[in-house]
Predict the structure.
Amino acid sequence: MTHTLTPTAEPAVDVDDVARLLNQDGERIADRELDPYVADIDAEALRGLYRDMALVRRIDTEGVALQRQGQLGLWAPCQGQEATQVGTARAFRSDDFVFPSYREIGVNFVRGAVPSDFVLAWRGEAHSTYNPYDINTATPQIIIGAQSLHAVGYAMGIQFDGTDQVAAAYFGDGATSQGDVNEAMVFASSFRAPVVFVCTNNQWAISEPVTVQAKFPIAGRAPGFGIPSLRVDGNDVLACLAAMRWAVDHARRGNGPAFIEAVTYRMGPHTTSDDPTRYRDKDEVERWRRRDPLTRVEALLRAQGEFSEDFERQVAADADRWGADVRSACLSARTREPIEVFDNVYDEPHVGLDAQRAQFAAYLDGFAGEEAGR
Ligand SMILES: Cc1ncc(C[n+]2csc(CCOP(=O)(O)OP(=O)(O)O)c2C)c(N)n1
Ligand SMILES: [Mg+2]
């Protein structure tokens, strides 16, 4: 290592400097290290991955539409990131424990979320939607990077329990600038915790391009913490699955944490509240549209004669059913009474809570006449 204070020239971070098993045209590329991890993926398994991604895209489209129609307060779209989410999540065992961010619709889908799980919180009808222990997945985190600490804590708990489960944290490129993520990596490395960090580098943190926050590939930071890492094409579902199987296997064998950077692109807005045309270039979006994660799997399956009309029809029908179920779960949601906000905060009642509840009830009573007078 050289010891110098001379700043190095700014290197360009190349989005194509990634491990890849499928190119943009859906051609299979051999990779000595990753191939063994997907040796079992035959045409049927590949169709399964395609179907997962198609259903996730449909759930996402429905979420955006519901928000535009005033039925949801907010939605954080995942279009473009389906391969990263489905590919990595398919590497877990059901008893592993996953800590997602707000955008991991595809991860939650793979973990077993049901239609209402995608909408109730965004509609403001539930503090959180699924019970984390039903699908071994924490409720989506909105505090940037915080879930990385939770995942490491959970992984250290696994060590105390002496089981071979693995924990995982999903966060974005922007989150890697947060102290939490870096502190989590220090603890994970020091305690050899069985945790996998998945950084979805979708090129943007709201309106901040990744180039402002990372002058060097993000995966290159992990080895500095003593954590091995892989940088993969996040629009290549096979590469994501293979890399994640490597990472999960590494952690499960007691070798400590691993880090995956999935290089992908957020095709839509950050959330339904922003307008990305104000801060990014149309050509950039079009360049990434040509790297669509679904079309390259479709191209591979077609080239193998494994993408039949029947299959296409079935996926479209399943996707429409999921879309309709998400919509009806949203529209039929029960609007809660405001006083219910106290119900699930503490396990048992106590005098302080009773006093607050009484005060709030009296406040609500103050509006009693208004409803009738309207
Ligand atoms: C601690 C914290 N700071 C700021 C915010 C506001 N915020 C919400 S999303 C976001 C950008 C996150 O970007 P990235 O980590 O790349 O994830 P992406 O949204 O691209 O999936 C910010 C700054 C927040 N939610 N939490
Ligand atoms: Mg981002």
User: Anything to note?
Assistant: The chain is about 40% helix and 10% strand. Residues 172-174, 202, 204-205 surround magnesium ion (ligand 2) (CB under 6 Å). Strands lie at 97-99, 167-172, 195-201, 204-205, 208-209, 229-233, 258-263. The longest helix spans residues 43-68.
